[in-house]
Write a structure and sequence with these properties.
- The structure is a single chain.
- With 415 residues, this protein is an alpha/beta fold.
- The strands form 2 sheets. Strands 1, 2, 3, 4, 5, 6, 7, 12, 13 and 14 form a 10-stranded mixed sheet that branches. A 4-stranded antiparallel sheet has the order 9-10-8-11, covered by helices on one side.
- The longest helix is centred in the middle third of the chain and has 20 residues, at 248-267.
- The chain has helices spanning 3-12, 16-27, 44-59, 103-118, 145-151, 156-159, 170-180, 206-210, 248-267, 303-320, 337-349, 365-371, 395-413; strands at 63-66, 72-76, 85-90, 127-132, 185-186, 195-201, 214-220, 222-231, 272-281, 291-300, 323-330, 333-334, 354-359, 374-379.
- It has 2 domains: 3-220 and 333-413, Zn peptidases (Aminopeptidase, 3-Layer(aba) Sandwich); 223-330, 2-Layer Sandwich (Alpha-Beta Plaits), CATH 3.30.70.
- Strand 3 (85-90), helix 4 and strand 4 (127-132) form a beta-alpha-beta unit.
- Helix content is 38%, strand content 21%.
- Helix 1 (3-12) runs antiparallel to helix 13 (395-413).
- Bound molecules: (2S)-amino(hydroxy)ethanoic acid (HGY) and manganese (II) ion (2 copies).
Length: 415
């Protein structure tokens, strides 16, 4: 039987009810009252969610292994020991996250494993579903920590001492994960995979505005995160005359205004600049702030604009006497043409219309692209909303995305 026929058979065994049930079941770990999810990387809820997925993986007849950054690898053996095909994403969430960001890609990978079993299909290559640690970067910075450590293990030396807002180190969080799953074997080899395909929600409005159910993602824009540390002198809010103050917040607001202006001047309509995290000390109504730290998240598709912003940001910080700390940087990524063509083929095989677009959000696939031929597939986000409890995607789109993923992974596993 031709590869395409087999791939079609597997796609046809994707079970809508099973996929939707798994999304709702995973969302229970860290469920918020408003329908969203708050599941910080390697926290208790994440550990319990991982336990739930490890049990489901074993029920599917798969083995589960782990690496130094607690990335999980759910493996369905193939008929050979050739390099595996990989898929997957992340299950850590934003504090006011939704049920789908990352989770959908992991659970669609599980659905493909189940569909292969239901179709009684053996593949030439192994198939691995990866659960990458700390993609959001909201507990431990930088983002996409797990996938970046998988691609370059030496990064773990620097990552281990990174602390969350409560002062807990990544090392301590990894120790707690190991204590929770002492039986998990090490994945060991980091030999290149045959290919990596990540399925994800778009998290923006393009697909919905175009009325198209799928996107083959040609690349990801670049990202820079900086912390701006502004110093002042704590003093009494009532007694200290304005000219005598060293108010850290006054300095921070001046920096914010200039950085925002430069971001829009350099990047024009493609600029995405966000100042989402502020820390004020002592954060008291009637004490002049002695220290303010805020984080800038700057994104742009053009590497030259990212470099120009970097230069201007350093100059602005220096001129104002603030300390700029570079937290995270990833250049724009272009995915592998051959893998994108296979994803396109799968869309066509299932008579599904697909756009080509560049991702505004970063994803683990940006690092996997350094490891092996990689590509991404998107489904629409209702209202373009994400990183918000209202994040949602029509069930029909979720199922179609899983079917295309099943078709694509099956053909890649038979290369
Ligand atoms: O920030 C991002 O782009 C991703 O959603 N973590
Ligand atoms: Mn994500
Ligand atoms: Mn996200």
């Amino acid at each position: 039987m031709m590869h395409d026929d087999i791939a079609r058979q597997v796609a046809d065994r994707v079970n809508a009810a099973r996929l939707i049930e798994s999304i709702d079941a995973l969302a229970a770990f860290g469920a918020r009252d408003d329908g969203g999810v708050n599941r910080p990387a390697l926290g208790e809820r994440d550990i319990e969610a991982r336990r739930f997925l490890i049990e489901r993986a074993r029920a599917l007849g798969c083995s589960v292994s782990v690496d130094a950054c607690a990335n999980l690898f759910i493996r369905r053996d193939g008929d050979t020991a050739l390099a595996p095909v990989m898929t997957g994403s992340h299950i850590d969430t934003q504090p006011t996250g939704g049920k789908l960001d990352g989770c959908y890609g992991v659970l669609a990978g599980f659905e493909v494993l189940a569909a292969l079993n239901d179709a009684n299909v053996r593949t030439r290559r192994p198939l691995e579903v990866a659960i990458w640690t700390n993609e959001e970067g909201t507990r431990f910075s930088p983002g996409a920590m797990g996938s970046s450590a998988f691609v370059e293990p030496s990064r773990m030396t620097r990552y281990a001492d990174v602390r969350d807002v409560d002062g807990v180190t990544l090392r301590a969080a990894l120790d707690a994960h190991h204590a929770a799953f002492p039986e998990l074997g090490a994945r060991g080899s980091h030999d290149a995979a045959h290919a990596f395909v990540e399925l994800h929600i778009e998290q923006g409005p393009q697909l919905e505005n175009a009325g198209v159910p799928l996107a083959v993602v040609s690349g990801i824009q670049g990202v820079r995160w900086y912390a701006l540390h502004c110093a002042g002198t704590a003093a009494h809010a009532g007694t200290t005359p304005m000219p005598l103050r060293r108010d850290a917040m006054t300095l921070a607001i001046a920096l914010h205004r200039e950085l925002d202006g430069v971001a829009h001047e350099l990047g024009r309509d493609d600029t995405r600049v966000t100042f989402g995290r502020w820390n004020v000390e002592p954060n008291s109504i009637n004490t002049i702030p002695s220290a303010v730290t805020f984080i800038v998240d700057f994104r742009h598709p053009d590497a030259r604009v990212l470099a120009a912003f970097d230069e201007r940001a350093h100059a602005i910080a220096q001129r104002h006497g603030a300390r700029l700390e570079a937290l995270f940087s990833h250049a724009p990524v272009a995915f592998d043409a051959a893998v994108l063509s296979r994803i396109d083929d799968a869309c066509r095989a299932l008579d599904a219309n697909a756009l080509h677009l560049t991702s505004g959000a970063f994803h683990d696939a940006m690092y996997l692209a350094q490891h092996c031929a990689s590509g991404m597939l998107f489904v629409p986000s209702r209202g373009g909303i994400s990183h918000n409890p209202a994040e949602a995607t029509d069930a029909g789109h979720l199922v179609l995305g899983a079917r295309v993923l099943a078709h694509c992974l099956t053909t890649l596993c038979n290369d």
